[in-house]
């Protein structure tokens, strides 16, 4: 070990050839660290079980997880990284950029910190009465578990897959927010149990036995997710649990399973108030969910509505009803809706400008009605150019122009997608 080569507040670690470092083990660097220090680990293979009792430190790899592995010591049944195991209340610990494999993975005990840009296999992540942030990680084989009162977490932009149990397990009053994660090929994608609380937004959940499982007095707010191809059911809410579930895309053989609600808390809700969109399938209004089946017989696939909301409610059971289920509109219907928007600009836009906009949209509808999609797209492109000219001349304001252009572009995309 050579002391004095690191800059202030930074210790380096290297156990192989390459740069001379301050330490040859991560544990020795942790033991020497103080508040605010960074431990920079050079690429290589490190066989360690690291106990962290120093708060406010960052442990990060220089070259990333593909070439920097930390594995548990053979024959030792322990975590690769333990935060707060020796002394609880170890806060603000960041672990960034490692391939963490084997053992019991990474464990927080009544502590806090961040996990970023790691690949974690065969050991998983566990947080007990802790607050952690988990961003841009890949978790394989064993999932993530949050348990007990005072546990809270944010999971964002992670990939969680091939776990024999739940990919993400929230239990015993833990509170977790999940945003933009991809969760697939697990026994359950997300499992909530025993007074758990989960806010689940913008995730893709597929190929699990159960997509989302909310049971035993738990609550989930589930919005803007894509949930498909789950073998048993897309979402299950049972055992005195409830959820607020809206603006999700479901496409599973069975999309939802519920039971008799607790009269003290009432049934789950399956739609929000109808408001301007766009919604999960690109329609003009937020409301309920899109209900599809792989064989094309789903409620949203077989029922229509003029505004992207089905004309009839979707009855899951006698207590659970989506009053505003979503449906797809045709390009003609979408163009008609855009005309309604134009006509609703009374007093804001000159009649002559609205007239030209309507004529151009009528031309689009004419071409679509005749099946000439290529010419319809050209007419929409001409419409977009005209809107830009009207904005530059001050005849449309920026908000109006942006909406007209975005809707025209969306209709073009619909036409192109319809052609396969």
Structure description:
The protein is 20% helix and 34% strand. The strands form five sheets. An eleven-stranded parallel beta sheet has the order 1-2-5-8-11-14-17-20-23-26-29, covered by helices on one side. An eleven-stranded parallel beta sheet has the order 3-6-9-12-15-18-21-24-27-30-34. With 420 residues, the chain is of the alpha/beta class. Helix 1 (26-32) links the parallel strand 1 and strand 2 (38-41). The relative contact order is 0.05. The longest helix is centred in the last third of the chain and has 21 residues, at 398-418. The chain is built from six helices and 36 strands. It has a domain at 331-418. The N and C termini lie far apart (63 Å).
Please outline the helices and strands.
Layout: E1 10-13, H1 26-32, E2 38-41, E3 44-47, E4 50-52, E5 57-61, E6 68-71, E7 81-83, E8 93-96, E9 99-101, E10 106-109, E11 112-116, E12 119-121, E13 125-128, E14 131-135, E15 138-140, E16 144-147, E17 152-156, E18 159-161, E19 166-171, E20 175-179, E21 182-184, E22 188-193, E23 197-201, E24 204-206, E25 210-215, E26 219-223, E27 226-228, E28 233-237, E29 242-246, E30 249-251, E31 256-258, E32 275-276, E33 285-286, E34 290-292, H2 299-302, E35 314-317, E36 320-322, H3 331-343, H4 351-369, H5 373-392, H6 398-418
Parallel strand pairs: 1-2, 2-5, 3-6, 4-7, 5-8, 6-9, 7-10, 8-11, 9-12, 10-13, 11-14, 12-15, 13-16, 14-17, 15-18, 16-19, 17-20, 18-21, 19-22, 20-23, 21-24, 22-25, 23-26, 24-27, 25-28, 26-29, 27-30, 28-31, 30-34
Antiparallel strand pairs: 32-33, 35-36
